[in-house]
Automatic annotation (TrEMBL):
CusB-like beta-barrel domain sequence ranges: 275-316
Organism ancestry: Bacteria, Pseudomonadati, Bacteroidota, Sphingobacteriia, Sphingobacteriales
Signal peptide: none
Domain (Multidrug resistance protein MdtA-like barrel-sandwich hybrid): residue spans on this chain: 62-270
Main location: membrane
Taxonomic superkingdom: Bacteria
Alphabetical keyword list: Membrane, Transmembrane, Transmembrane helix
Pfam family, one: Beta-barrel_RND_2
Record's subcellular location: Membrane
Protein name according to UniProt: Membrane fusion protein (Multidrug efflux system)
Membrane topology: Single-pass membrane protein
Transmembrane segments: 21-39
Organism: Sphingobacterium yanglingense
SUPFAM superfamilies: HlyD-like secretion proteins (SSF111369)
Length: 371
């Protein structure tokens, strides 16, 4: 009996010890949970966080402006390049021939232009000659008119003398002949003047046409030179150059491959500027504004914290930029919280070595200090 009582007392003591440990553990959990909850609540008053964020950089697509077969490729995946470096070349024989054809067209157009200018000069000289001829005809007509007037006066005088039988018929006929010849000479000279005037008009018309032809020829020269410039430009495009400093990636071209103008071949990642785009819920934006400090942690480097600041807010939610934006007028509306892209700029407090670790598309956790 005494032994049973001792066992019962021992069991009661063990139970009391177990209950005491449980109470201590439970109290510790409650204190920890309360403290953590309080910390999160206090932090939520001055912080807005999201894990829906990615690192971004400018990515310049390499797009050829002319087509053809690739002659040589000078870069490999992940190579660093400088602005102006040759990435690859396109076979240039066809474009060189087009340049030579354009040069020949320029030479032909310039020759036609020179011929047109010579025609204009010749026509202008003919106009001057016609003017001189017309002026000479005017002087001849004036002299002929004077002689005709004199002949008419002589005829009248001889006619009176003949009527009075003071002269012979032969003398009278000579005076009449002189009058008729003088009048005829005036008529001939007037006809020559009219013919010269008509000829001058024809020459002036020809000069006008030649001047217009010269303008057309000059326009043809300009067009031929423009085509030559375009041919030379296309020839220069057969060497595809790097547009920015950066790192090439996703190269899928090889020698002998046929490419087309406007075809995106690979990318140059511009390492000069890096930023983060964080997609915050619309309910988190009330206290956020540009210039607020931001703490950034990238999943790839959890032990490195980057410093940034809010730069700008997107003018529309991310869903509005999707391929098929949601239509809330269909009658089956379900309200969902929208997210707005926020651009976060990395500050100068970050070291260049740390920023160099970042790659576009890396996931990040963002913590914005709103107070």
């Amino acid at each position: 009996m005494q032994q049973d009582m001792e066992n019962t007392t021992e069991n009661i003591a063990k139970k009391k010890g177990t209950n005491k440990k449980f109470i201590i553990i439970l109290s510790a959990l409650i204190l920890f949970g309360g403290g953590y909850g309080g910390y999160k609540y206090v932090q939520s008053l001055s912080h807005e966080t999201t894990d829906d964020a990615q690192v971004e950089k400018n990515m310049s697509p390499i797009i050829p402006r002319v087509g053809g077969y690739i002659a040589s490729v000078y870069v490999k995946d992940n190579d660093f390049v400088k602005k102006g470096d040759t990435l690859f070349t396109i076979e240039s024989q066809d474009y060189q021939i087009r340049v030579e054809e354009a040069e020949a067209a320029v030479a032909a157009a310039e020759s036609s232009f020179d011929v047109s200018k010579a025609d204009v000069s010749a026509s202008s000289a003919n106009v001057a000659i016609s003017d001189a001829t017309i002026q000479s005809n005017a002087g001849s007509i004036e002299a002929a008119v004077i002689r005709a007037n004199q002949a008419n006066n002589d005829y009248i005088r001889y006619q009176n003398l003949y009527n009075n039988q003071s002269i012979t018929k032969q003398q009278y006929e000579q005076a009449l002949t002189g009058k008729l010849e003088a009048d005829k000479q005036v008529e001939i000279l007037q006809q020559q003047r009219n013919a010269s005037a008509s000829q001058r008009h024809a020459i002036v018309s020809k000069t006008t046409v030649a001047s217009k032809q010269t303008s057309v020829a000059e326009a043809n020269v300009k067009r031929a030179k423009a085509q030559l410039d375009a041919a030379k430009l296309n020839l220069s495009y057969t060497a595809v150059l790097a547009s920015v400093d950066g790192q090439v990636s996703n190269i899928k071209v090889q020698q002998g491959q046929m490419i087309n103008p406007g075809q995106s071949l690979f990318y140059i990642v511009d390492n000069r500027e890096t930023w983060v785009v964080a997609n915050f819920k619309e309910t988190q934006l009330q206290k956020m504004k540009p210039g607020q400090k931001v703490g950034i942690k990238v999943s790839a480097y959890p032990n490195v914290e980057f410093e940034g600041e809010v730069n700008s807010f997107s003018p529309a939610t991310g869903s509005r930029f999707s391929l098929l934006p949601p239509d809330n007028a269909t009658g089956n509306f379900v309200k969902t919280v929208q997210r707005l892209p926020v651009k976060i700029k990395l500050t100068n407090e970050n070291t260049a070595e740390h920023i160099a670790l970042l790659r576009p598309g890396m996931n990040a956790d963002v913590d914005v200090l709103v107070r």
